[in-house]
Amino acid sequence: MRNGTPVQSFFEVRSATAVAAMAWLHAVADALDETGLYFNKQPIPGSAIAVDAFVYTKQRKDDVQDRGWRNEERNDREMSVIDEQVAHLYEQPSDWDERVKRRWRQAIQPPRIRLGLRGSPGSGKTFLTKHAAVALARESAKQIDERQVHLYDAPVPFWVTAKALAVASGADAKELIVNACLDSLKGIRKDIPQPPMDWIQRAAASPHALIVVDALDELADEEAAFKLASPRLKDVTGRLIATCRTLYWEHRTNWLGWANVADVELAPFERKEQREFARNFPPGVGTPGLEPLLSSNFPLRQACSAPLLLAFVCLLLAEGKNLAGANRVTVYTEIVRKLLSGEWRNVTPPWKGKKGFQQSILHFLEEAAWSIFQAAPASNRFTLIEFEKAGDAPVRHAELLDELVRCGVLVEAGEDDLGESCWSFLHRTFLEFLAGRALARKLQGEWLKEAKKHFWYEPEWMEVLTFLAAHVDDATPLIEALEQEEEDIFYSMLYLKVRLASAARRVAPERLDRIAGELNDLFQIACELDDRVQKVDQQGKNSPSTYHLTTVQLAGGGLLVERVSIALAERLRDEDSAVQWFAAEALGRLGNARAIEPLLGLLRDEDSGLCWSAANALGQLGDDRAFEPLLDLLKDKDPGVRGRAADALGRLGDARAVQPLLGLLGDEDSAVRGDAAHALGQLGDMRAFEPLLGLLREKNNLVRQHLVLVLGQVGDGRAVEPLLGLLGDDDSKVRLCAATALAKLGDSRAVEPLLGMLRDKDRDVRRLAAVALGQLGDARAVEPLLHTFMDPECDLRGTAWAALRRLVAIHQSKAADLKLGRQQRV
User: Fold this and answer.
1) Smaller CB count within 10 Å for the chain: N or C?
2) 291: enclosing H helix or E strand
3) Which residues have C-beta within 8 Å of that of residue 568, sequence separation ≥ 6?
4) CA nearest 69: which of 536, 538, 533?
5) Beta-carbon neighbour count of residue 448 at 10 Å?
6) Cα 488 to the center of its chain, rounded Å
């Protein structure tokens, strides 16, 4: 018989439940932390390499424009070689100039949110949702252990595959979620302990639950079952997130059956995220050789905007591969060979260690890619039948597909309209690389004839032609064929010539000189094109030069780079400030180190627009040699120079700048203090948080506006209380910025003050308050927003309606919340 009172026995039972719950949370975190990638035969955990990622929302910038200081997403973003016309082919975000960019961790903060996360293969959808679940599981286990939260109030993550949800059973939504989650986890790791069922089911019904439904795009035969199961989740009170490839999102979002699903799209990695990733990947090693490689090679830098491709490049460098001077072809060749070896997935394909066998697999894969691409140039999806059309394979086609999926070369891609299973290459560029490689193996007459068919208005062929030029011994015939094309009114042929010449192994020197001369002429035309260019806009917004600069920047990392860099450096000495401005912009995008010194000189120029361009270019170049000179400029007697140097240091993303920039927060010049605050926000270092809070007592309204936006950008919850105090500030733009920042932080404490701001005397403040309330997702805002919408005298009916659309689902679930609360009290 057990000793002790009934009360002691009760606490022993509760303690056993807590121990079992913590064990389950830790096991779940460990399982979801697996990435499937290996370095030196050791698994790479996701928590060791995660970076603070960004997403694009469907919301337009016009809805959150602060009209004062700079937006978190500034207009100095690097232009992509993937333009709007072909972005959909790569499942890349389009129309990003007009959309709001937010941190992922902020996007998932609002309670009861319904979120659809989409992106291309390799963009990090599954990784991000798993990492969010891992972080929540470990934090909840810690809080339970330290008794910071009651066991039944601890937030619990439920990571569920769409397939598991489709086949799961359950009497109600919470049982369905739990069963689907347990089945999903078994597919990752078999030894996960069983959780206390009463606790886990109550956690699934809790408003604190985080429920992820991953990979809608992988549903095949399960479509009908999923359409029955998923709508059962619509009334759960926790946060719901679904992930899907961009290719399938528009069609499959309706399968969810949830109301008011907010659509967000993963943003490609920019320089800051690339640097942060390289510092941690592989864990304990890092990739210090990545930064100089990307700084000098624009096309490769663009390829590494996809997290998965960036991971592969980091693995190559960490394994000692010398990529100095490497072009995209060299890198893709090495990646494909390593993937085929199975080493990065810790698998052993049948051709492992057999060079001839592996080479035959690669050759067949090239022919298959060419066959698949020819049949459907705009697609990266094929069936077994289409795979077999490439001819005889070294092993059975079906077995080869399975092995290529295990190695990571291919991914499963659902079914077509006829119910046939489909596959995709890991990333569309792998399809294009292998297709271009196969085309280059043909006789010159054949590949040249094929290429000529696709010079005009076939953007889906652009990358294949580029890879063709990179693989053939001499691309001069391609360049000559392009020169024979007539009436290049829109410089389309020049654009293509620059692409091909920059990627080529060899082009006749006289042809390169001619292309460089044409670029020089084009550059002059860009400078003279419009009166707006002569009045240089500091952010380059709406400039007619975008297309021209994109053409010029393609010369980076190839045969043209030296010729073009020399010409642009000379342009920095031009008497016309517009010419200097464009030259600085172009040099930054070329990524050539010879631009460092002349650009540093421009930081002292009296023309503020030119100084902005030089700072922007230096930030994009990311060369360590710029760090010390910029640091010295923080002590310059000219406040304009100090401010521009601070801005450039923020763009460089080097953590060594944090302490010097903190010192600049006490600068006698208010604009310099603002620039230093913005730079610290760009660096995102938590050491800056307390000093930034202290500056909220700043008398200068513009600086306080700037500081408020930066605090929202940094994303620290400690900023909520100070920001709430600023909602009553005398300056309307400070109030407006505070509302914007609070919406980004997603803290429910902001709801009541924001409701009061719906009656603010400033229209813009009222509008931003309505937008912020919609983003926070709190049901308390429904009635005030509805009243605003119904008021015929109100000038914010459109904004109120947009906010209400996000809140309708919450308002409808209020009764369900009350019922759940009563059940839990019982």
Assistant:
1) N
2) helix 290-295
3) 523, 552, 583, 586, 587, 590, 595
4) 538
5) 16
6) 35
Alpha helices by DSSP H, 380-505:
384-388, 397-407, 428-440, 444-452, 462-471, 476-483, 492-503
- Residue corresponding to tokens 């051709």: 351
Return the half-sphere exposure (C-beta side, CA atoms, 13 A cut-off) of residue 55: 26
Distance CA 207, CA 111 (A): 7
Q: Letter for the amino acid at 417? A: D
Instruction: State the CB neighbour count (10 A cutoff) for residue 48.
Output: 13
Q: What is the pLDDT of residue 787?
A: 75
Q: How far apart are CA 50 and CA 47, in angstroms?
A: 6
What residues of the chain score a pLDDT lower than 70?
1-14, 58-99, 295-299, 489, 526, 528-558, 591-592, 608-609, 622, 684-686, 688, 695, 713-716, 746-747, 791-798, 805-826
Q: Is the dihedral of CA 43, 46, 49, 54 positive or negative?
A: positive
| Cα 635 to Cα 628: distance, rounded to the nearest angstrom | 12
- Rounded Cα distance between 390 and 372, Å, is 8
> What per-residue confidence (pLDDT) applies to 299?
66
DSSP state string for 203-235: HHTSTT-EEEEE-GGG-STTHHHHHHHGGGGTT
Tell me the three state secondary structure of residue 545: coil
Question: What pLDDT is recorded for position 99?
Answer: 64
Helix (H, G, I), strand (E, B) or coil at 376: coil
Exposure pattern of 533-548 as b/e (b: 16+ CB <10 Å)? Answer: beebebebeebebebb
In whole angstroms, give the CA distance from residue 226 to residue 164.
9
Strand, helix or coil at 506?
A: coil
Contact 59, 743 (CB under 8 A): no
Of 324, 1, 232, 277, nearest to 131 by C-alpha is 277
Backbone angles phi, psi at 302, to 5 degrees: -65, -40
**pLDDT, position 640:** 79
**Sign of the C-alpha dihedral, residues 268, 270, 274, 276?**
negative
Contacts of 439 (CB under 8 A, 6+ apart): 370, 447, 450, 451, 464, 468
| Neighbouring-strand partners of residue 240 | 114, 211
Question: Strand pairing partners for 157?
Answer: 210
Give Dmax over CA atoms of the chain in angstroms.
98
Q: How far apart are CA 581 and CA 584, in angstroms?
A: 5
At position 695, the amino acid (one-letter code) is L
Distances (CA, A) of 789 to 113, 308, 397, 808, 814: 22, 45, 60, 14, 21
Beta bridge partners of 158: 211
pTM above 0.85, yes or no: no
Residues 6 or more apart from 636 whose CB is under 8 A from it? 604, 642, 645
User: Contact at 8 Å (CB) between 39 and 281?
Assistant: no
Read off the DSSP letter of residue 170: -
Q: How far apart are CA 542 and CA 732, in angstroms?
A: 28
Q: Are 233 and 258 in contact (CB under 8 A)?
A: yes
Task: Tell me phi and psi for residue 411, to 5 degrees.
Answer: -130, 150
Secondary structure element (H or E) that encloses residue 19, with its range: helix 6-32
Q: Which residue has the tokens 């595959």?
A: 161
| Residue located via tokens 């140039």 | 377
The pLDDT value recorded for residue 93 is 58
